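User: Let's play a game. I give you a shape written as tokens, and you guess the letters that built it. Ready? Here's round one.
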């Protein structure tokens, strides 16, 4: 398995309660032109201490495509409900102090690589040769520490691992599965270097 594919994260399976909620929403009927992913309505990343204050940056009566919240410790929690309006999410992340490049991809597609120069081998480094090398790569990668998938729909972003001028590149792949609604590839691009637009192609790997 090459390094790029190894970095795609699988969202943890939904709980029975979450699946029951998904079935109930399907029975009630959903908007035919939108595909909503299922999962808990979380605004705080799993594992964050209850004492940490969280300030929501998106508030509304209807469930938004995404939500962003900032904790008192500086971490950001991104909740992705629907793969729509990546530019809007990118703008919100910029307003919260994180330079980002966000792409939403259809199922079974990927961006042509390389799009940018990564800060560590998690993106454009040589293929790993075994589990020990992969484990070492994961432990040493700032890219993987900068953004962590914490639940079915939620990502925690830790700005402490992002140096000035670096870009957090996030590629979301749609996945027609209630338990794994999307997959995420996330990397850091080197400071003050360009990130080329995504050119989607079929993922045959």
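Assistant: Ready! My guess for every position:
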């Amino acid at each position: 398995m090459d390094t790029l594919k190894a970095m795609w994260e699988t969202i943890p399976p939904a709980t029975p309660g979450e699946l029951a909620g998904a079935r109930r929403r399907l029975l009630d009927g959903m908007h035919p032109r939108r595909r909503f992913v299922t999962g808990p309505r979380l605004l705080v990343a799993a594992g964050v201490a209850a004492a940490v204050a969280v300030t929501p940056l998106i508030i509304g009566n209807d469930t938004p495509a995404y939500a962003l919240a900032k904790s008192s410790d500086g971490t950001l929690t991104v909740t992705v409900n629907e793969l729509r309006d990546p530019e809007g999410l990118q703008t919100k992340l910029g307003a919260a102090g994180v330079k980002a490049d966000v792409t939403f991809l259809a199922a079974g597609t990927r961006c042509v690589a390389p799009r940018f120069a990564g800060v560590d081998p998690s993106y454009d480094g040589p293929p790993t040769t075994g589990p020990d090398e992969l484990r070492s790569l994961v432990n040493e990668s700032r890219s993987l520490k900068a953004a962590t998938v914490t639940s079915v729909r939620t990502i925690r972003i830790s700005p402490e691992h992002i140096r000035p001028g670096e870009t957090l590149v996030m590629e979301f792949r749609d996945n027609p599965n209630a338990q794994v609604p999307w997959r995420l590839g996330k990397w850091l691009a080197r400071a003050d270097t360009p990130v080329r637009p995504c050119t989607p192609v079929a993922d045959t790997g």
